[in-house]
Design a protein that fits this description.
- The protein has about 400 residues and is mainly beta.
- The chain is about 5% helix and about 35% strand.
- The longest helix is centred in the last third of the chain and has 12 residues.
- The radius of gyration is 21 Å and the shape is globular.
């Protein structure tokens, strides 16, 4: 019997991988080993994870390609089959794979910016990399303009034709710079330059890393973050960059009527669904958080959701599908033991369409649906767009 694909709203469900059918990595593992500092992106049918770090791999020997204790790996998890696949790519996969920033701006194109190698801060990046997830070919994009310094632990978001990048660290210096990249011309520009020159605006956020940013209504919102080892930023006030005025603003947020504001933290995750941001996990150097919050960028209202993560975690990664399903993967689960996880959880943030409900029910009810003939599925009335979610081996092409 297939594993049930639950769709109860605002409830975490663990997705156990089908290890019997997974491919094997260079480590001999049939799925990614526990890690932190990685990034995930998702589309309608797959979760992709890139990079990450595990200190227990310091003593593992490297070859000409591997960079342990970082994982120079791109994995795909197909939700319908529950199968992990290690994707063998061509071109130059970056080596700066701890705390990069990643997005899936258009279908089948993974965007990766920044990150660090090991030791942290000694090998950092400010190169924009793209991986075509159909051809599995990497390429670096030549950018011009006011290019950000080499950073990691920053955050990126897309609004319109621009990708915005805020904060981060070189490993030695933290910053609070806001840049944007035009995704057609690939020209960078630094925002808020006039404020920096005049020093008149005290609303600009302080330097930080491992925060998150989200964009809505021509405004860029900064969520938390901090500086190692003990500085963390809270959520009673929100630093917001108004793109129309080209000005930082500091606005008070509205607390949850019962629970107040979220505790200050860094290394948390935020996903955006329309004008709402869902934040979970993180830590403040003393405590790992497992709470889940919703923030309205329209009303500046915080709401603490009546659930917790299956296990408190930080340095994890989260992403949300267009249909409103949030996935959380990996991270650190224990401060003293430096323990990491490779568990995948999903949670529906809104009621899915009837077609999504039917597809989830079908995947949970039919054994080996991924092995059924595509023509047979079509004859049963399964829409083509859902059949395309079933895992199919991608084809790698040479340059």
């Amino acid at each position: 019997m297939a594993a049930p694909m639950n769709v109860k709203i605002l409830k975490f469900y663990k997705i156990p991988p089908d290890t019997a059918t997974n491919s094997s990595s260079q480590t001999g593992s049939t799925c990614p080993v526990p890690r932190s500092g990685h990034r995930i992106v998702v589309d309608d049918g797959n979760l992709y994870t890139i990079g990450g770090y595990n200190p227990h791999w310091w003593e593992v020997s490297n070859d000409d390609y591997t960079i342990y204790p970082l994982f120079r790996e791109l994995w795909k998890f197909n939700v319908a089959s529950r199968k992990w696949s290690l994707l063998i790519t061509t071109g130059h996969m970056p080596k700066e794979l701890a705390s990069p920033a990643a997005l899936l701006p258009i279908k089948d194109h993974l965007l990766l910016f920044g990150g660090t190698g090991v030791p942290f801060g000694t090998e950092s990046s400010n190169i924009l990399h793209l991986c075509n997830l159909r051809t599995l070919k990497w390429r670096s994009v030549e950018c011009s303009g006011d290019v950000p310094q080499r950073i990691y632990g920053h955050s990126i978001a897309i609004l319109g034709d621009y990708m915005y990048s805020f904060g981060g660290t070189t490993g030695f210096i933290y910053n609070a710079d806001l840049h944007r990249l035009h995704l057609q011309t690939f020209v960078w520009e630094k925002l808020g330059v006039e404020e920096d020159r005049t020093k008149l605006n005290t609303s600009k956020p302080s330097e930080r890393y491992r925060h998150e940013i989200c964009c809505h209504d021509s405004r860029v919102f900064v969520f938390g973050g901090g500086i190692d080892p003990d500085v963390v930023h809270g959520f009673e006030e929100m630093h917001i960059f108004d793109l129309r005025k080209s000005l930082w603003q500091l606005e008070s947020t509205h607390p949850d009527p019962t629970h107040g504001h979220p505790a200050p933290r860094r290394c948390h995750s935020c996903v955006q669904l329309n004008s709402d941001v869902y934040m979970c996990g993180g830590y403040d150097s003393q405590r790992i958080y497992g709470d889940v919050w919703r923030f309205s960028m329209s009303t500046l209202q915080w709401t603490k959701l009546a659930l917790t993560m299956p296990q408190p975690v930080y340095f994890h990664s989260a992403a949300v599908t267009q249909a409103g399903c949030m996935f959380v993967y990996g991270g650190v689960t224990h401060l003293d033991h430096n323990q990491r996880t490779s568990d995948i959880y999903r949670m529906w943030l809104k009621v899915p369409k009837l077609s999504e409900l039917s597809w989830n029910s079908l995947c949970g009810a039919v054994c080996n649906i991924t092995k059924m003939d595509r023509t047979e599925l079509l004859s049963l009335g399964v829409p083509q767009k859902f059949i395309e979610r079933i895992d199919a081996p991608p084809t790698a092409h040479s340059a």
